[in-house]
């Protein structure tokens, strides 16, 4: 029984190493998204997701939406957010931003160092976390 458990653990660890490069390969150049946590909420069909996003200087993430609210806390650097229906907002470390569900928005690093944000999403389960807009 102990050997079976040990083998199962080894297989899980090996499998997780195989999936890490695949997830990173799908990220656009200049961006790193690190999934921190994902939990079901008490509201049926909703979940909370937290992600750290690092954006290289001069890089922009195009217009997109989320199937729920996004709460942003800028950890480092300077980011400009273009949220439909609002004037562009430039935020620095310590600043926050709330983006309502389904609102089209984009982000761009306007500083000279890598910028980082903590993005917290309150979203519908089983929907893509992000949908690009043309």
Automatic annotation (TrEMBL):
It comes from the Bacteria. Gene3D superfamilies: Jelly Rolls. Residues 1-25 form the signal peptide. It holds the Pfam family Cupin_2. The keyword Signal applies. Residues 52-116 form the Cupin type-2 domain. Keywords: Signal. This is Cupin domain-containing protein. It comes from Bradyrhizobium quebecense.
């Amino acid at each position: 029984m102990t050997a079976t458990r040990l083998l199962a653990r080894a297989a899980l660890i090996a499998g997780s190493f195989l999936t890490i490069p695949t997830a990173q390969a799908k990220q656009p150049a200049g961006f790193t998204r690190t999934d921190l946590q994902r939990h079901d909420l008490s509201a049926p069909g909703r979940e909370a997701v937290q992600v750290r996003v690092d954006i290289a200087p001069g890089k922009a993430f195009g217009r997109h939406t989320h199937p729920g609210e996004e709460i942003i806390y800028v950890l480092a650097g300077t980011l400009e957010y273009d949220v439909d229906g609002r004037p562009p907002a430039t935020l620095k470390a310590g600043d926050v931003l709330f983006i309502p569900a389904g609102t089209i928005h984009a982000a761009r690093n306007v500083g000279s160092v890598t910028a980082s944000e903590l993005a917290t999403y309150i979203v519908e389960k089983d929907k893509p976390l992000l949908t690009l807009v043309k």
